[in-house]
Amino acid sequence: MAEEQEKNTLTVLQILPALESGGVERGTLEIARALVEQGHRAMVMSAGGRLVAALTGSGAEHFVWPIGRKSFRTLRLVGKLRRFMVEQNVDIVHARSRVPAWIAWLAWRGMNPATRPRFVTTVHGLYSVNRYSRIMTRGERVIAVSDTVRDYILREYPDTLPWRIQVIHRGVDGEAYPYGWKPDPSWQQDFLTQFPNAAGKLLLTLPGRITRLKGHEDFIELVARMKRRGLPVHGLIAGGASASKQRYLQKLYYRVRSMGLEADISLTGQRDDLKNILAISSLVLSLSTQPESFGRTTLEALRLGVPTAGYDHGGVGEILRVIYPAGLIPRNNLDAACQRLSRLLQSPEPVPEGDFFPLQAMLDQTLALYEQLMRTPPTRIPR
After folding, report:
1. Which phi and psi (to 5°) does residue 346 adopt?
2. How far apart are CA 86 and CA 75, in angstroms?
3. Cα dihedral value 210, 213, 219, 220, nearest 10
4. Rounded to an integer, what distance in angstroms lies between the CA atom of residue 318 and that of residue 330?
5. Please, which residues bridge with residue 283 across strands?
6. Domains in the chain and their CATH numbers?
7. What would the 3-class secondary structure string for 103-142 be?
């Protein structure tokens, strides 16, 4: 019996650039935790970051490698990774980003096909279409995080065999994001002390890192238009800016000032309490100018029961069509978007309660994919 249990135990290595923040990183932690809970060995390789403590606290192992560094020197890790996978008896290597996927694939293809690990990739984004990005379609199994991503793969990389792609939607834990939940009054008071201009207003929140793709300029324009309509709104831009985005951040500050909106829009910076901010919002927005591959923050807000609106494209449109069609707003039409948002603020349509896109389904489907792959013969992947 012990021998059978040992044989059924998997050693899974997930690789990604770092463990700082973001949906990819959180999904990595969730899969690692689920593997440990099922008695498997969960390993993660990255450059590290603030989520490492949570990872190792769940019983997973972390290995600090600069495997996501965009440098030709990173190719030196190929042989080292090949030896590592042999020494650690890795059963599954799961690449979640392009540079780590290249290193893993180059290491993997030089191993004995009869004994090497199984190779899995997850396409987390709608990457630029080129040979560099094609690596994400080279897994023996390719996980697409939404139907939007599956369509992107088949359209842009038509030589990818459809049966190798499996759609596994990202998920949210209903216990962590319970419908109708609100933060305690002391947190709310502290928040309003930090951002006093938000007190007594309808809070319009745009979560997401500071980057041109997230639609911050559209957001500022929409707040200005709603102010002109006489709506008592306050805009919250909730997200941090990396060192490379500081210039763009200053541009946003200048735009807010030049439009006379300093009392009407607050930039919160990086926050560890985004769930609380979502929960006190009157309306949460997704205004990404490019389609999102999924839209996890949109789903989190909806699971809390907070009205949420977003441009009708990509994964965000996919989520809203399932849960909250009232929140679909047209791209490239700020007049129509302003009208829809104004109606949602003045007469909010209730968000339905339900276990939409549950986290457990994502975990179960991913572990089942690992286990099924171990039972099938190795797949020949084109070079």
Report:
1. -80, -35
2. 18
3. 60
4. 14
5. 204
6. 2-171+360-374 (3.40.50.2000), 185-346 (3.40.50.2000)
7. HHHHHHHCCCCCCCCEEEEEECCCCCCCHHHHHHHCCCEE
pLDDT of residue 378: 81
Say what the pLDDT of residue 331 is.
Answer: 87
* Cα dihedral value 304, 171, 284, 178, nearest 10: 10
**Which pLDDT value is given to residue 222?**
96
Q: Which two tokens stand for residue 237?
A: 């831009």
Which pLDDT belongs to residue 3?
A: 43
pLDDT profile of the chain (383 residues), mean per 10: 57 96 89 97 96 97 95 94 97 97 96 94 94 96 96 96 96 94 96 95 94 93 95 94 90 95 94 94 95 92 97 94 95 92 94 95 97 87 57
Give the separation between CA 213 and CA 149, rounded to whole angstroms: 17
- Report residue 274 as tokens: 């985004």
pLDDT in the model for residue 270: 87
Identity of the amino acid at 189: Q
